[in-house]
Design a protein that fits this description.
Number of strands: 0
Largest sheet: none
Radius of gyration: 17 Å
Structural class: mainly alpha
Helix content: over 70%
Strand content: under 5%
Length: about 200
C-alpha cells in the first residue's frame, strides 16, 4: 500500500519523529535548546535545509547516481548537497538576522553534520519514496525536529530557576526530559506507521 505524502508528512512530525524515535541530531538539539528564540531560529534553518536537501538528493540519486551506477557515492554526494545548502542558509541568516546568526554561533554551520538531515535522505532511499513522498518526509521530519527542540527549550526555561539535584544539572536533566518527551510521542505511535 502506497502512503500519501500527507500521511508521511504527519507521521514524520509525530509518530516517527526523527529526533525522538531515532535519536538523530541530538548534539545541536541539546546544545541550542537553552533559549526558545535561538531554538526557533535553528529549527527553521533545519526545516529549510532538510526539506530542500531531501528534494535535491532525491533528484541526484535517481537521475545521476543510479543511471551512472555510482550509488556507492551516495553518502559523499548527499553530504556535499547538505553542506552547500547549509552554507546558503548561513549566508541568508547572517544577511537578514545578524542577531540570530551570532546567537546560534558555531551551531549554524554544524547543521552540515546534523545526522538527522543525512538520515532523512538515506531513509527516503531505503523506503523507496517517490519525489513527493520524499519532500513530505523531509518537511515533516524538519518540523518534527523543530517541535522537539522548541518543547525542550520551553521546558528548560521553565525549570531554569527550580531546584535540580547537583548531579543532574545541565545535560543530565536535559536527557531525562528528552526521554520523557520521547515517551510522550510514543502515545502517537498507533496512529500511522511509516517504517
Amino acid at each position: 500500500m502506497e502512503l500519501s505524502p500527507f500521511i508521511i508528512f504527519v507521521a514524520a512530525i509525530f509518530t516517527s519523529n526523527i529526533l525522538l524515535t531515532n535519536f538523530l541530531g541530538m548534539c545541536s538539539f541539546l546544545s541550542v535548546s537553552k533559549e526558545v528564540e535561538s531554538s526557533l531560529g535553528l529549527g527553521f534553518a533545519v526545516v529549510f535545509v532538510m526539506t530542500l536537501t531531501s528534494a535535491i538528493n532525491y533528484v541526484v540519486y535517481h537521475y545521476i547516481l543510479v543511471p551512472l551506477d555510482i550509488i556507492y557515492l551516495q553518502y559523499i554526494i548527499f553530504i556535499i548537497v547538505i553542506a552547500a545548502f547549509v552554507q546558503l542558509t548561513e549566508m541568508v541568516v547572517e544577511r537578514f538576522s545578524p542577531l540570530l546568526y551570532y546567537s546560534l554561533g558555531i551551531f549554524l554551520p554544524l547543521i552540515t553534520v546534523n545526522c538527522a538531515i543525512l538520515g532523512v535522505s538515506l531513509f527516503m532511499i531505503i523506503r523507496q519514496y517517490t519525489f513527493l513522498q520524499s519532500v513530505a518526509f523531509g518537511a515533516g521530519a524538519g518540523l518534527g525536529w523543530l517541535l522537539a527542540i522548541l518543547a525542550l527549550a520551553g521546558i528548560r526555561q521553565k525549570i531554569k530557576d527550580k531546584y535540580i539535584p547537583q548531579g543532574l544539572v545541565g545535560a543530565g536533566i536535559s536527557l531525562i526530559t528528552t526521554g520523557i518527551m520521547a515517551l510522550a510521542f510514543v502515545g502517537f505511535s498507533g496512529v500511522v506507521v511509516i517504517q
